[in-house]
Amino acid sequence: MNILVTGANGQLGQAFKKVGFPALDEVFYTDVEELDITDLQAIEKFVQANEIDTIINCAAYTAVDRAEEEPEAAMRINRDAVANLAEVAAQEACLLLHVSTDYVFDGNAAEPYTEKSRVNPQGVYGKTKLAGEQAVKTSGCLAIIVRTAWLYSEFGHNFVKTIRKAAREKGELKVVADQVGTPTYAADLARAIVRILDSADVADHTGIYHYSNEGICSWYDFAAEIVRQSGIDCKIDPVTTDQYPVKAKRPAYSVLDKTKIQKTFDVEVPAWQEALSRCLQGMEA
């Protein structure tokens, strides 16, 4: 395959570079400097010139709180740019694999969200990501949408790096304990996507899939495990969401059901604690 990866400088894009694709695939890693996906003609030109047959869209506006103040900017990346990619994918008969988020749900569930659960985003970020999903569907292109949650990696800014830095600088941290979900190691998500694309019958299984690591924890639990596995001497105190006000509402419950992706593509879903361990080893290397 000739594969285009957009948003290649982000966490997932860099995870793809680390994980790699099958040897016969030619992969074009692009970020905004190489390809502006808000420019429809630029996408058409790139896809045609490089005979792209698979597009993996890792590009996204992910600043959840800032999105509340910059809804137009979030919509431009999370909906309009996705619509461009989908339009070109339909026109050029490409497969589009688009990455979405747990924020399309309202976080009021009591059991893991399936791909058929009702969407009801509460903030600008979630609403723009849902609009992106809808743009993919209405385009008619061959598409797989993978929703994920609580993404972290060795790269960029994320919760794991923030907690490790703060824990080393302070003897005590307060972390929200009443928001529950599952962390996702970007390298594991990248491997799952590579496996999906490597399936001989991938075109027969288009649609929406969920992927995060296995297990359930709160942000407090996650922080405590980060500190424990890192060997840092820091006390982690649980607090409520009300005690930690932010601009955008966070889902209280955002656990994703991975049954469909496991059954359809035989994707491995490691436990979040073990995935964290592998990420931390990568950070130390």
Architecture overview:
- The protein has 285 residues and is α/β, with parallel strands linked by helices.
- The protein has one domain (2-158, 184-212, 255-270): Rossmann fold (3-Layer(aba) Sandwich), CATH 3.40.50.720.
- It has ten helices and twelve strands.
- The protein has helices at 11-19, 40-49, 64-67, 71-92, 124-139, 159-169, 186-197, 219-230, 259-265, 272-284, and strands at residues 2-6, 26-29, 54-57, 95-101, 142-148, 151-152, 172-176, 180-181, 184-185, 207-210, 217-218, 235-239.
- The strands form four sheets. Strands 2-1-3-4-5-10 form a six-stranded parallel beta sheet. It has a two-stranded parallel ribbon with strand order 6-9. It has a two-stranded parallel ribbon with strand order 7-12.
- β4 (95-101), α5 (124-139) and β5 (142-148) form a beta-alpha-beta unit.
- α6 (159-169) packs across α8.
- The mean pLDDT is 96.
